Amino acid sequence: MTDLVSPMPPSGVSIGSEAGSGTAHGHHGHYATLREPLIKGNKSLAQVTDDICRPLEGKPTRLWYVGIATSVTMLLVGFAAIGYQMYMGIGTWGLNPTVGWAFDITNFVFWIGIGHAGTLISAVLFLFRQRWRTSVNRAAEAMTLIAVMCAGIFPLIHMGRPWLAHWVFPLPNVRGSLWVNWRSPLLWDVFAISTYFLISATFWYVGLIPDFATLRDRAKTKIRRATSAVLSLGWTGSARHWMRYELVYLLLAGLATPLVFSVHTIVSFDFATSVIPGWHTTIFPPYFVAGAIFSGLAMVLTLMLVARKVMRLEDYITESHVGSMCKLIIAMGGIVGLAYITEFFIAMYSGNRYEEFVFLNRALGPFAWAYWIMVVCNIVTPQLLWFKKVRTSMLTVFILSLFINLGMWFERFTIIVTSLHRDYLTSSWSDYSPTSIELLTLMGSFGLFFTLFLVFCRFLPAIAMGEVKGILPYGRKEKEPVQ
Amino acid sequence: MSPHPQNRQPDAQDVLPSAVRELGGPSGAGDAVRLSANRRDFLKVAGFTLAAAALPSCSRAPTHEAIPYMEGTPEFTPGNAAWYATLCGGCSAGCGILAKVREGRPIKIEGNPEHPLNGRGSGLAGACAVAQATVLSLYDRQRLRGPVAAGAAASWEAVDKAILEKLATLRTAGGGVRVLTGTLSGPTQRAAIESFVAAFPDGKHIMVDGLSASALLDAHDELFGARVLPHMRFDRASVIASFDADFLGTWVSPVEFTRDYTRARNLSEGTPARHFQLESRMSLTGASADERIVLAPAELGGALAHLAVRVAQKAGRPLGFPAAKVTKSLGKALAGIADALWTAPRGTSLVVCGSNHLTDQKLVAQINHMLGNYGASKAETTLDLEAHSNQKLGDDRAVHALVEEINAGKVGALFVAGCNPVYDQPEAKSLAAALKKVGLLVSLSERVDETSAAAGFVCPDHHALESWNDSEPTAGTLTVAQPVIRPLGDTRGMARSFAVWSGQQAPASDRDLMRAAWQKHVAPRGASPAAFERYWNQSVHDGHAASPRLRSRAQATLSVPRLEGLVPSPAAAPLTAGRLAVVLYPTVGMLDGRHAHNPWLHELPDPITKVAWDNYAALAPATAARLGIEDGDVVSLEAGGRTIELPALIQPGQHPDVVAVPLGYGRKGTDRFADIGPSWIESEPTVAEGGTVGVNVSSLLGREEGRIRYAGLAVALRRTGAKKPLARTQIYGSQTVPQHIRPGSDPRPAALSLTLAEYMHEEAGGHATPGHAAQPLWDDDHGYDGNHWGLAIDLSRCTGCSACVIACQAENNIPVVGRDEVRRTREMHWLRIDRYYEGEGEDVSVIHQPMLCQQCDNAPCETVCPVLATMHSDEGLNQQVYNRCVGTRYCSNNCPYKVRRFNWFKYEHADEVENLVLNPDVTVRTRGVMEKCTFCVQRIQEKKIKARNEDRALLDGEIKPACAQSCPADAMVFGNMNDAKSRVSQSIAERRSYRVLEDLDVRPSIHYMARVRQREERNNRDD
Amino acid sequence: MTHRFVLGTFRSEDDVLGVVKAVRARKLSLHDVYTPYAVHGLDEAMGLRPSRLTWVCFLAGAVGFGLTMLFQYYTSAFDWPLNVGGKPYNSLPAFIPIAFEATVLFAGMAVVIALFIRCGLYPGKKAKIPGPRVTNDRFVVVVRLDSADASAEDVQMLMEGFGVEAVDERVGGVA
Amino acid sequence: MPQRLRIIILAIAFIALGVVVYPRIADSRLPGNHEGYSPEQPIQYSHRLHAGELGIPCMYCHFAAEKGRAAGIPPANVCMNCHRSVAEVTGRKLGAREDLMAAAKAAKDDLSAAAVAEPPMPPSKLKALREKFKAAQAAVDVFNPNTLLSPEIAKLYDHVGFDPKTMKPIPGAESDPIRWVRVHRLPDYVYFDHSAHIHAGVDCQKCHGPIETMGRVRQTSTLWMGWCVNCHRDAHANGVKGKPAKPSLNCTACHY
Predict the structure, then answer these.
(1) Is C93 on the interface with B (CB under 8 A)?
(2) What 3-state class would DSSP assign to B1002?
(3) Is B180 a domain residue?
(4) How far is B874 from chain C (nearest CA, A)?
(5) CA A284 → CA A280, A343, A379, distances in Å?
(6) Which of A202, A259, A483 shows the shortest C-beta gap to C112?
């Protein structure tokens, strides 16, 4: 075995020779002072299991009930709005022929972007051997799935005739056969989003299998035992299985990594391959991917900071986890900021009058407020995270993460609406303002997001037990080569 | 009704039968024939209808019935259209039209290309927006179904009996009997009315025009001894000076004038005519002018007097008065105009004036006379007094006298037909009260309007398309109307009503009555019955006729006009501080308000302001800025105790002292439009509860020497603080982007214009296209071997009159969406006319650019559709398949021209009567579906199949999309671009030709030809 | 023939690794090891051969890519060529995004299905575990006694050297 | 292994279900799919008799098919061109009184049986049976053995107001349109032009099937888009009856 697959970081925590003595309180080795342990409280394996399963097996907290009630209300109101829109027509949104997309696709790109952080944490960080990911990857993956579901609503409901949505799939038909237009970025989206959802769901479920087995084997009630037995697929923890399992997990991580980049690249193609100034930009793929991860990390932080409080998981999601994510946010925010500057510069430098105008119009036109919200939230906010004081104040980080979420929503809004509303022919320039239906629909998507997330926290292990146990300092000597 | 509503789009057929039944049984064919001259009596025609009797359950095969005629006729093949020539009822101009009839329903109006007035044998078949929209008013549910007595439905017998009884007492008692009509030039109706009024000791027929040209007529009466309108021949003009006359938009005979005007300004035949426009507001005509000079209404008289003196000086015939004082710049402009007029060959210049002020018109006549513009028909001068025009015959002074008679209680019986004095006369309010004093008030209005509401009897006339009628637009030339559908209600022709009320035995039918009148007044004297029959049949078939008998009756004195004592009116008193001069003007759609029940015309954006569904108070930008008024601020106009509240609109190119307000709005009964358009939680009704569309502003009209005064009344304007955002289809007006965002940028090159000098100079005028040749990324897989359809649009010819917009609407079943949707810029017109202002303040140039699907060969919209609902045909058409569309709107987003239209709601509505106007050859689109211009592919298909069935090639010009077909200016040429000899190819080869946004390499199939202006400076050229 | 198994329960992965190595050194038959998480190095310590699931993944991906490319070509350039925006019928670059997505989808789904088949995992399968705590905090090393005379005591002795918590002998199966 | 087998069987069942169910769903959603539709017509007009046995050309009655989009159902006066002198079907006893009486009796029996049926029949069914009986009875009453009038032709006469006794139009009679039930009906967004196809040499039977053998018209083709397109493709490659043809494969050939 080489370092590459070692479960131990180079400066990993180790414990002394008391391994096997049965005590849960081994003392720290000489590296202990160099880095904070990933999991606090020096937990034993059983304690990990108990801590993580506790929220599932006990009664939910009052806070949970308040949360679910609020989010289900939001969800229902939002879905009523969608129902009304479906019944009346897309006209209940504030769109017009010039601004054919606004809230719908903004929300779509926003939610897809949110999803990206989950895959990043679970797959990309896995490949990079970032062991701190184990505390957050399960929840982040769940967030990915839920965000993709939220995102998936919008391409569906933005159609004028959503009941014909199946026409976007290349299904066998008697029209001659009339297939689909493979050249349309929207079709690429269909494939990208569905693949992304399926692979993420698979990845997430594969990760859950050993935890289901754990749940099964400690279940006290019949129902819980039966469901977890079905879901665990008869997992035993055999070393042979673990070996294949680890390989498949690695392969899935390897597949999910290019996938996650491709998904937002393709989403950006919706715009980049069009002719609309402000959309037709080659920088969009990396810009979108960075932006997606940026927004996703902010959303992970938002959720984690709430979850660790509500679910009492402070020992598992520690300040150092939050710190790591803050640092990632600084990096991603830097990329996003650079992208903003670059596209503005290129527009000015290109000499293309339409391009140039679109960007000036963003900064100075009727939607300048949205543009400046975006700039302040996405470029200025992350800079505060350079300060350790800020990073270690959970409340501040929470507030900043909200700002980034807001800013990233406005980034998509700015790209979509300001590019469309004043394009080539000045005669078709138009205005846009959202209707109540659009606002409620956006609210509904947040309702769905939080509802599903709260349900997830309540019924599934929010932290990957199998993986956390793998990085515990407990029961292991300092790394030694295996013959 | 069907198991899969989303897949089924209702078409006309589904809604036909019950509506037909409701309106009094199946309507047969028109009563006369155009295509087959041998007219024969029809046997029973049950009408070919297809009934959809839906099964209540979700059966897989809903039963549809197919009901054939009982008796076939060679004239109709189900599924094929028949065309009938008839007379347009849209205004008093008397244009000839063709009505397209499908299965007994007229569905489309086109101009009659052979008509001497608006076709003049050129093959051009122009018809204005109003003419084409009249087909919709035929199916108006609000039209009266039959006579009304004292507010209740009555039978014709009862009504006639009551009227005849009252008339009998009048005949003996000797009370005044007055017939008040709009301009009636047709011999049939005039003869009927004349013989009716002749039966009374004090009977009189008075004509009134909602848009009066009384002063023009009176001026010719005084100067030439004949109260006639000279027939203005713009086609013969080389210099045109127009003083506040909107002759391309609404004045006298706009279709004919547009045709002639564009012909005179044809760039390929010598030097085009030069056009000066002096006006106080921005008119459609001003938009086309080479030079446009803005003057206040008060300056008009002075300017005319100044010009008259200038011309007189050149003519060496000094007038008896000195040149009026005008501002320095105006004086300079007038000197230039005088030069241009004088340099033009005698008889080829033309000065026209829209003022309803006698002195103004006398001055104009004087100038024209000095320039040798008056002449007989043979002289080919610009003003023909021999074959004079009858298109305006109203006499304001007679109406004024009538009003006073009524007020004095001297009128025993008043018959009102084809006019609406209680709405459009300045005394409207007092008149309404006074009318109660009239013993017998009979209205022949087709609906309950302001005037007929006061009438004891309403005896509705037919709709123009249901009538036998005639019109004599110019002396000796007749337009013949034949019904193209059996009357939908129990209505009666006006001439027949008067014949009945004369107490004599009235002919059995409208047709017999007209034939009798023709024998008496129109047909050549002493024609044999067979010769008359030939003359009659030919005239009805052609839709027009020449009547030497009528021509010879026209006696215009061509002597030197009597000019003694011509004194220019003193300059109007300057406005007191804080007051503005109101200018009331008709719009292209509403005219004098007679079309206020036509939703197509309400939704037709004004060609200049682009506002639909409202009138407004237009203010110059400087004035608005001074008063702190913004677009949509409700302002009050107050004059002499009358107050009117209107939303404000900022109008570049208008005189700062002027507030311009459209006439024709605020008609009674337009509250019906409250329901038009979708209704949802955030929608606003088109009309507020109990309100009307727009505001009636006739109370701001003045009367001067008995004539209506449209301009100059001083009003105080105040902001009320309320807001009423206007529904505008174009929000941003310039091709130059806002200066505060991008200072110093050039105008964008969409609608290009050149000066004449640039155009004449080969290199400078060479392909006007800016930008660089784009390099295609892909190999070209797609040769267009057969036809490659293209359209060339000449911006020099386009006046912006919007006839094409309505043509497209009628042809392609485009829905009316209502004010709220238009306010959200969701109007559905496939063809819009972009109007760009260039310049600052008053000195503003306008350019119109019809913008429709460019049928790009590298269409960006096609690439992005996920379901292949839009793609390219092998004839270069950008196809849109409605039934495949799922409505992602991606295509519309990716369209650089934004010409695609989306069905935001279910716009098609269940009004079965109104739906009779639908074209069965075009699918009615359901909600959630994208639609757009198809180059009228149904017409292409029809002609292609016809040619193939006849084993021949298509002819150039055989296929015409509705827009190109309707254009009175011949600004649009459609054809096969692969055929080098086709007109479209030749137009494209013209060096003014360019394509909009060509540098995107989308390869549009529509080519534009740059506007050429005869002026000095370069205006709006990109480099 | 019925096997006899000796099950040793341990508390730490280091002990497991040690005992596994020792068992193999003694040439005893190591039946299996049950662990609550993936113990790194255990597969090599047990001398397991590398899995071939990688190949399944690769092949499925290749098939997905090829099929999707072919299908796109067939439908847009062969079955019914339609002119879309002036692009060539065979717009190869435009086919790549979907082919890529299909590659990932096929590879990912195939490898997971292969894993389930290879490990015999399916809904409703009854888990045969040596004890309830192997999915929680205990490690169980199972040594199979190949011959009837093999002694469980030897194994127990060996295991005790590595701090075994409990030793158990079962006949017929581990569960 | 039995578990594995179970999985395989489940998977196969799932796929089979998809294969079987999907087309059902798909075609039930297709508008205008009336293949096999053969409704009862108000007059039992037989194409087998007229077009088949008598050999009347299609274009004699459906003359509009050559001229325009719609083939058109012939106006009643076209029927009367022949039927003003032909009131019976020669060589057959289509309207023999015995048959009619037998039919009336059978209808009466049905009605009586239904009246006492247990459990009681729904009133709508009873009503339908009663109507049927009345119609059969009326057919007997109307039957005139002297003219040997076919009951179907009698209906035609009734519609146009023609007296079979005198074989002359009834003066002043109101005519009553015949409400045929439409068999072939394309969705409203499909435009089909008969004249174009006839001039291209396409036989009527190509779309309408062997109509000359049908007593009652039945839709024999699906009239689905693929069905149309495939014919166009075929004609594009091979022409129509050997004659080269260039049928359009554009969307706007049919959809606008």
Answers:
(1) no
(2) coil
(3) yes
(4) 8
(5) 8, 9, 17
(6) A202
Q: Is the pLDDT of residue D30 over 70?
A: no
Q: Is B806 within the bounds of a domain?
A: yes
Listed residue (A89, A160, A443) closest to B680, CA to CA: A89
Residues B988 and B916 in one domain: yes
B758 touching C (Cβ < 8 Å):
no
d(CA A240, CA A109): 41
Mean of pLDDT values over D66-82 = 86
Which residues span the domain enclosing B364? 214-389
- CA dist A249 and A252 (Å) reads 5
- Average pLDDT of chain B, as a whole number: 85
**How much is the pLDDT for B967?**
92
In a domain, B573, yes or no: no
Which of C122, C125, C126, C128 has the most D C-beta neighbours within 10 Å, making it the best mutation to test the interface with D? C122
Residues B887 and B816 occupy one common structural domain: yes
- Per-window interface: A 47-106 vs C, CB < 8 A: 49
Contact D154, D100 (CB under 8 A): no
Q: Does D201 touch chain B (CB under 8 A)?
A: no
DSSP B875: T
Q: At which residue do the structure tokens 């506007």 appear?
A: B1011
Which helix (H) or strand (E) element contains residue B428? helix B428-434
Chain D nearest-CA distance from B883, in A, is 7
Average predicted confidence (pLDDT) for chain A? 84
Domain identity same for D247 and D191: yes
| Residue of D3, D20, D224, D248 best to disrupt the A interface, most CBs of A under 10 A | D224
In chain B, the number of structural domains is 5
Tally the domains of chain D.
Answer: 2
Nearest chain C residue to D251 by CA distance is C82
Do residue B730 and residue A190 have CB atoms under 8 angstroms apart?
A: no
Say which of A45, A245, A258 has its CB closest to residue C36. A45
Looking at the DSSP bridge assignments, the partners of residue B850 are B833
Domain span at D3: 1-30
D204 and D225 part of one domain = yes
User: What pLDDT digit, counting tens, does each position of B80-121 carry?
Assistant: 888 999 999 888 999 999 999 988 899 999 999 888 888 776
How does strand B901-902 pair with strand B930-931? Answer: antiparallel
Quick check: D7 and C122 CB within 8 A? yes
B813 contact residues in D (CB cutoff 8 A): none
Both D65 and D1 in one domain: the answer is no
**Could you give the number of structural domains in chain A?**
1
| CA B409 – CA D22 distance, rounded (Å) | 83
Q: Which domain holds residue A257?
A: 62-158+180-471
Does C129 lie in the same domain as C95? no
Q: Answer yes or no: do D57 and D2 share one domain.
A: no
Which domain range does residue C109 map to? 53-119
For strands B239-243 and D162-163, give the pairing.
unpaired
Neighbours of chain C (3+ CB pairs under 8 A): A, B, D
Domain-terminating residue out of C76, C93, C119: C119
CB D190 within 8 A of CB B7: no
Instruction: Find, in chain A, the residue whose alpha carbon is nearest to that of D225.
Output: A175
CATH number at residue B230: 3.40.228.10
Cis peptide before D119 (omega within 30 of 0): yes
Supply the DSSP symbol for B571. Answer: P
Instruction: Mark whether B418 and B494 lie in a shared domain.
Output: yes
Summarised one tens digit per residue, pLDDT across range B249-278 is 999 999 999 999 999 998 877 788 999 999
Q: How confident is the model at residue B25 (pLDDT cuts 50, 70, 90)?
A: very low
**For residues B1008 and D190, what is the distance between their CA atoms, to the nearest angstrom?**
33
Those residues whose C-beta lies under 8 Å from the C-beta of residue A162, and which sit 6 or more positions away, are: A86, A156, B886
A68 within 8 A of A122, measured Cβ to Cβ: no
User: Token pair 């044998």 is at which residue?
Assistant: B121
Gap between the Cα atoms of B279 and B283, Å rounded: 8
